Amino acid sequence: VQLVESGGGLVQAGGSLRLSCVASGMLFSINAMGWYRQAPGKQRELVAVITSGGTTNAADSVKGRFTISRNNAQNTVYLQMNSLKPEDTAVYYCYVRIRATDYWGQGTQVTVSS
Fold it and tell me: In this structure, are residues 74 and 62 in contact, taking their beta carbons and an 8 Å threshold?
């Protein structure tokens, strides 16, 4: 399973970015797709997840600002990030859960300047 992320970059506070992640390979029975992030010196944390049935969950810190969506036919998951804050600065990792196994992308840097 391969995951390729795109869409990261540098943005000013209050701006927006859209992350994309395309999954390929042995994609039988995808249970969920989502995003984690890891800031320098901090543990990796869940940002948002969406199940194969479309149920979503997001961290309290991003609710109302970030929206996760997916295109099942294209095995793609998106993260629309609005009203970005400097504390959103992190490496964002895409993941896909297939049965009981999680697969990870290489990460994309998001930097929000104040």
Answer: no
